[in-house]
Amino acid sequence: xxxxxxDDEYDILEFLSYNLKKEGYEVFTAQNGIDGLxxxxxxxxxxxxxxxxxxxxxxxxxxxQIKSTAKLENAFIIFLTARSEEYSELAGFSSGxxxxxxxxxxxxxxxxxxxxxxxxxxxxxxxxxxxxxxLLIDKQKHIVKYDDQDIVLARKEFKxxxxxxxxxxxxxxxxxxxxxxxxxxxxGDRTIDVHIRKIREKIGVNYIKTVKGIGYKFNL
Amino acid sequence: xxxxxxDDEYDILEFLSYNLKKEGYEVFTAQNGIDGLxxxxxxxxxxxxxxxxxxxxxxxxxxxQIKSTAKLENAFIIFLTARSEEYSELAGFSSGxxxxxxxxxxxxxxxxxxxxxxxxxxxxxxxxxxxxxxLLIDKQKHIVKYDDQDIVLARKEFKxxxxxxxxxxxxxxxxxxxxxxxxxxxxGDRTIDVHIRKIREKIGVNYIKTVKGIGYKFNL
DNA sequence: CAAAAGGTTAACAATTTGTTAACATTAGAA
DNA sequence: TTCTAATGTTAACAAATTGTTAACCTTTTG
Lengths: 220, 220
What we know:
The structure is a homodimer.
Chain A: E1 2-6, H1 10-22, E2 26-30, H2 33-43, E3 47-51, H3 59-67, E4 76-81, H4 87-91, E5 99-102, H5 107-120, E6 129-132, E7 135-138, E8 143-146, E9 149-151, H6 155-166, E10 171-173, H7 174-182, H8 189-203, E11 208-211, E12 215-218
Parallel strand pairs in A: 1-2, 1-3, 3-4, 4-5
Antiparallel strand pairs in A: 6-7, 7-8, 8-9, 10-12, 11-12
Chain B binds a DNA duplex through residues 69-71, 154-157, 187-191, 193-197, 210, 212-213.
C-alpha cells in the first residue's frame, strides 16, 4: 500500500515516514506541492497525506490538482492542519479530503485513521500479485503457482521470475538482470542461465523465452 | 482509573495532578524516570504521562522500559513535549506512545485526549481474536487453542505468533518481526528462530513455514 | 527472597541456495 | 549445410541460511 506524504517540514516527513514504514506501508515524501504532484503522478499512491499550509502550492490547491488528475482521482486524502480551529477554513472548500488530522500528530491515531480509510475504500489492490495465464506470482506471500499447483522457487529464482513478469514481453539483458536481481554483484552470465533453467524446469512450461544475443523475456 | 505522571518539574506535576484528580482519576506522580518506573511497576497504572525531557532517564528510555515490562505493556502512554519541533527527536525512536501533547499544556485538551485514548482502549476489540483452521488466538484473553486444547505460550512467543497470524500467508522478514514483536530491540536473528521453534513445538503442527532467505510466514 | 519461567545468545550441525567451470547443444549467419 | 558464438546442462563446490541445543541471564511469581 503506497502512501505519499507532502509537508514542507522535514521533521514531520521523517517522523511520519518512520512510523508508517513500521506499519508496512511503502512511504514516499515530498517537501512541496509541485514536487508532490509530480511524484503522485509517477507513484500513483493509494493515500496522500497533505499539509494544509505549504509555500508555493498549499494543500488545498494540490488536492484539487490531484482530484482532477485521472490516475489519481481515486486516491484517498488526509489533511494535516496545525490546529483544530482551522477546520472552519477547511469547511468552506469541497476539497475532496477523506479525513483531517491535527498537529501535533499522534502516530497511533493517524495510523488508525489510515486503516479506517483504506478499509472503507475498495482499496483491495494487491499490486504485489502478478497473474499471467496459468502462472501466478505473489511477492508478499512469496508464492508461485502454476495451474493452482504450488511451485517452490529459491530466492534468486523467485526474484528473477518476478522481475521478468513485471514487464511481460520486455526483453531483459543479462546486464539489466544483474542490476535488478543481483544488485550489480559480480556474477557471470552463465549463472543467470542456470537460474533460468531451474525456473523453466520447476514450472514445466517454457514461459521464459530466450532472445539470442540479447537476453530473456517472459512470454507465453 | 489510575494515571501516573512523570515530570521533573514540580509545578507541572501539581498542575496536572490537580486537574486530573478533579476529573475523578486516581493520580500518582514521580519526579524522575527511575522513580517513575518503580512506581509504575507497583501501581500498574492504566495511563502514564511522560515528559520527554528529564534528567537521569528521559521519557523515551522510560517508555521503552515500560513497554518491555510485561505488566505494563498494555498501559497507554502520552508524551509531553516542549515544542512541536521536537518531532525530529521523537522520530528516531520506536516509542510506542499513544499520543503527544505539547507544552504549555491545556488541561482541557489533555483531558479530552485522555478520554479519547481510554475510550479507544476499552471500547474496541478490533480483530483481537484470530481463528485459522484448528488454531485460535485471542489477544485480549492471551489464550491460544489448538483443536480446543489450551496451549500456553510465553509472552514473546505469543506476540510472534499473533503477528504472523494477523496476515496469514504474508512472509515476514526477521527485520519486520524485530520491529513488530521486539520493538526494534537489538536481538540476533537466531533469537527469532528459537522462538519460532518453541512455538512449533508447543502447537505440535507446523503452521509456521520457513521461507528461506526471506523469513517466516503463517500457513497451513 | 528464592524458585520457576521466560528470553537471549553462542556454537555447531544440517540444510539449502548460489556460483562456477566444463562440456554439450543449438540457433542462425555465411 | 557448415561453422561459430551463444546458450543449455550438469555436477561439484562454496557460501549462506536455518535448526537445535545448552548455557546463561533476566524477569516474574509465590
